[in-house]
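A reminder from the course coordinator: this example appears on the midterm review sheet, so study it carefully.

Given structure:
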């Protein structure tokens, strides 16, 4: 047997309904807030991510599915969507065609991580991005939309956590304060932290190593080092969240594992998910569009893990229930079954038939197993009279219905 590639998985029919529910709600909510759907290729030039996501990130250093294609071009399966969306925004000059460039995309991402419970090398995200607006009112709207989306999925008990990581003016001051505060303790931190101290000291806050936590807890907070402009922006974000009556919590450790974030960072956490508890996360990335060769436009966005949303989704009765089974009794009815099934399907009914001319008993058994709500029985007598017999499975009741009324009768019954 040939199995799926390690770290990938099939999403089976009994799960797909949950996925579709998440995707449909995501499209609906994004559309209501003025976003347009964009679909970018899953394969991109590698430099898009080394420049965009950042050379110092774990993604670029360890996790890219990068390879030379047959033409010798260095390409990679996309590890995240934001640089791709920025590329498309720049490449197609989308700011000229859209008054406010609000874009979203749904699709698979690829990271070569050590497979662990609930994490896959092919995983799926909703990505939401806005270009061209620097105002804090947008930050708050993006977060409010994320909370609305999660609420409309029926996922309750989520918590919005926010922080500000500053800008290129004030971040170097904070980075230096971090390194000063660490002092000699830096050598006691884990290897990743020591590497981060050199490349992007803020990311020491991402460390999950237990032994490092007491040291990290004593470090200064980015919000105490913001420049006046960043502080004003962060205060305005919080004021706008309060306008929405949107509860939130400040967390100075929320720096997100990417290099491009500026000012606002945020996550939406769920108490239902255990250790990997972030449903979605994002922030502002005001320098990224320019860094990727575009005009100097601010940007903000978030990525939601579809696996996590699907996992946190409450159960509803979403089994695929076929509506109708058409059973043939007698030889003449065998052919008529297929014509009747076509008419039922054209009328919008989910319809199953038996292809193998089995006994009436075997067909009823199959109808039972399929969980249909009604069985339409077509015998030679019914055929001659222009009628069918409809059996309601829940009650066992049977009645005769004229052949040309059957679609209406079944539609009004279901
Ligand atoms: Zn600043
Ligand atoms: Zn560490």
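Designed residues:
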């Amino acid at each position: 047997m040939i199995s799926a590639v390690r770290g990938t998985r099939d999403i089976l029919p009994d799960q797909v309904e949950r996925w579709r529910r998440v995707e449909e709600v995501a499209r609906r909510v994004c559309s209501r807030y003025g976003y347009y759907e964009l679909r970018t290729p899953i394969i991109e030039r590698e430099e898009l991510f080394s420049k965009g996501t950042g050379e110092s990130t774990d993604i670029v250093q360890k996790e890219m599915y990068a390879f030379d294609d047959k033409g010798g071009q260095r390409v990679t399966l996309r590890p995240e969507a934001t640089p791709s969306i920025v590329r498309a925004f720049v490449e197609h000059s989308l700011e000229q065609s859209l008054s406010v460039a609000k874009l979203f995309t749904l699709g698979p991402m690829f990271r070569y991580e050590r497979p662990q419970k609930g994490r896959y090398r092919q995983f799926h995200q909703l990505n939401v991005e806005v270009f061209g607006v620097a105002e804090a009112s947008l930050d708050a709207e993006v977060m409010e939309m994320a909370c609305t989306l999660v609420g409309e999925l029926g996922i309750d008990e989520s918590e919005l956590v926010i922080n500000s990581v500053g800008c290129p003016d004030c971040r170097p001051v904070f980075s230096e304060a971090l390194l000063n505060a660490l002092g000699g303790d830096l050598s006691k931190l884990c290897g990743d932290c020591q590497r981060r101290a050199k490349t992007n000291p803020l990311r020491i806050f991402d460390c999950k190593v237990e032994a490092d936590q007491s040291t990290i807890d004593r470090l200064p907070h980015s919000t105490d080092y913001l420049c006046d402009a960043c502080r004003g922006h962060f205060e305005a974000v919080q004021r706008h969240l309060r306008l929405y009556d949107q509860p939130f919590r400040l967390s100075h450790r929320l720096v997100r594992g990417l290099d491009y974030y500026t000012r606002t960072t945020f996550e939406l956490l769920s108490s239902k998910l255990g250790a990997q508890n972030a449903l979605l996360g994002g922030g502002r990335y005001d320098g990224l569009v320019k860094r990727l060769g575009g005009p100097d436009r601010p940007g903000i966005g978030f990525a939601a893990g579809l696996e996590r949303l699907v996992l946190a989704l409450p159960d509803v009765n979403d089994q695929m229930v076929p509506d109708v089974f058409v059973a043939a009794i007698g030889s003449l009815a065998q052919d008529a079954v297929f014509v009747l099934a076509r008419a039922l399907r054209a009328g919008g009914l989910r319809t199953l038939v038996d292809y193998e001319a089995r006994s009436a008993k075997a067909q009823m058994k199959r109808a039972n197993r399929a969980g249909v709500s009604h069985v339409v029985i077509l015998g030679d007598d019914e055929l001659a009279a222009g009628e069918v017999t409809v059996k309601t499975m829940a009650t066992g009741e049977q009645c005769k219905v004229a052949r040309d009324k059957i679609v209406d009768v079944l539609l009004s019954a279901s």
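The mean pLDDT is 92. The CA atoms of residues 20 and 310 lie 9 Å apart.
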